[in-house]
Amino acid sequence: MNTVALSGVGKSYGRNTALADVTLDLGPGITGLLGPNGAGKTTILRILATALAADQGTVRIMGEDPRSLTGRTTVRRHLGYAPQETGFPRGFTAFSFIDYLAILKEWSDAGTRHEEVRRVLELVDLADVAPKRVGALSGGQRRRLVLAQALLGRPDLLVLDEPTAGLDPAQRGRLRDVLGQAGESATVVISTHQTEDVAALCERVIVLDRGQVLFDGRIVDLVSEAAGRVWMSDTRQPTAQYAWRTGTGRVRNVGDPPPDAELIEPALEDAYLLLVGDAADDERLESAS
Amino acid sequence: MSAGLARAMVPTPPAPDVSRATLLALAKADARRYARHPLFVLPCVLLIVLMIVDYVQNKGGGTNPMVATMTIAFLLGVFGFVIAHRLTTSLRRTRELVGTVPVDHQARTLSLCLACLVSGMAGAACAVHMLIVNALWPPQGIPPSAPVTWFGDYPAVDVLATLILMGPLAALGGPLLGVAVARWAPFRGSALLGVVVLVVATAIPASDDRGGAERLASAWPVLMDEHVENGKVLSTTFVASIEPVWALGWVLCLCGLAVVAALLRDPAHRRVLVIAGAALTLGAAVSFALALS
């Protein structure tokens, strides 16, 4: 049995369709969600985190239906969730904020709870600022504070929306290590715009666009789809969908190469750009015809 | 196989309610937040200063029960309303996070209601201090044989009921009302609006020329009258038309109703809450009628 099973899931906000007929199964390991803004990544994560109910389809998390109060509570007992954006109540220190959330996650024994709070603060490198007011923390520190609360109690399902946003390279490296360890036993779902994070962490990638799944599979399979479509040249090529001057002074082109192109190994970012770009082209052609 | 999968394969029983241990831990945390709130700390400091001033001015003897209970009700009850309102709405900014934890909103509301006991206990401490001071240094009357300001020969049970109602219970009721208002009207400015309503609802019916029913229906029922001559309080008497013990029952039921109203904001346990609310309403009506009979 998978930890998460979505079947024909749909969600709309008024007239806007955020998700349309999404079917997914997720098990232990790290899965990355990629997609442009408005693709439906956050909506999927919010459904997995029981913060939002699907309009259509069936959702099973840990075998439970989150639409029922019982199911929702059971799921929440195994869940760690870090939303993309959150505010912070006034008057809390970093330690007391995590401690309060730990109580809300049913850590009633003060001794073990404080030990756990110290552990997660250590994991995200915030042990030094534990006595500081949350209001006095930097943006990156606040981001890590949100991640710390998600890690409380080593949850079986970890849902992280843009976990590396606002973190410096060293903090991102540290976080990758933490998430890598969590992914050994738990089901970890991360949504991000950073393809390098997905490439570094995830065994599986799901690409969403306009509420639909464009790709669901291994990263190597997605990357292989871009093979023969990335090349270097001295000038910008007209057949390239995307082209940019690199640090070497040469131009990296992604798209349909000319016959004499100097092909190079594609990266995940190239494959993602091609996939989303091709889907947009297909839709333009469909609407034109 | 992961622990999560192993657990997922086992049929899970219905999710139990929030455990007593969790509720207790949460209530302790909320009580700490309440006790550390500047709007609680400052009034407490002010209360202590006023007690000392009162003690020095009266040379150790006597406390004016009207002024003392009014000070408790204002500094702990009215300020408590604002504190409880703020604590209740403080997690709104974090609702995406706290909306996905196993402890539901209703349990958090109950925990905040329990935290309001901090204010009630502070009020009780002030009332106990008042009793001790008056027991150790009885106020001198005019003529010296008659006690001034301290209820003369009224039964102790009536004196206690009045002091509890106008002191500690007012200190508890204000914050409980703050929780209920914050749960039902969490918009910006509702705390200020609530304070204005609270003060007006106290001031209008509390004036001396009103009858017992109006006084009892006030947000802060005043059950005593002071008899002043040449600016000096000669004696304190009870309002003849109100029975203090039943009045205490009436205000206790109102406090209970504030808790029920706050909890009814969430759909869980609605049946139990409606029954409790009905029982408390009946209790309040009976107490009100008996207090005036």
Structure description:
The complex is a heterodimer of chains A (289) and B (293). Chain A has helices at 41-48, 69-76, 94-104, 110-123, 139-150, 169-182, 195-201, 219-224, 268-288, and strands at residues 4-13, 16-26, 29-34, 56-61, 79-82, 157-161, 187-191, 204-209, 212-218, 230-233, 240-245, 251-255, 262-263. Chain A is an alpha/beta fold and 289 residues long. In chain A, the strands form three sheets. In chain A, strands 5-6-7-3-8-9 form a six-stranded mixed sheet, with helices on both faces. A four-stranded antiparallel sheet of chain A has the order 11-12-10-13. In chain A, helix 3 packs across helix 4 (110-123). Chain A is globular and about 70 Å long. By secondary structure, chain B is mainly α. Chain B has one domain (21-291). Chain B has a two-stranded antiparallel sheet with strand order 1-2. The chains are: A alpha/beta (289), B mainly alpha (293).
Average pLDDT of chain B works out at: 87
Q: Helix proportion of residues of chain A, in percent?
A: 25-40%
Q: pLDDT average of chain A, as an integer?
A: 92
Which chains have the largest interface?
A-B, 47 and 37 residues
**Oligomer type:** heterodimer
Amount of helix of chain B: 55-70%
Any idea what the radius of gyration of chain A is? 21 Å
Distinct helical segment count of chain B: 13
Q: Could you list the spans of chain B in which at least 5 consecutive residues all have pLDDT below 50? A: 1-16
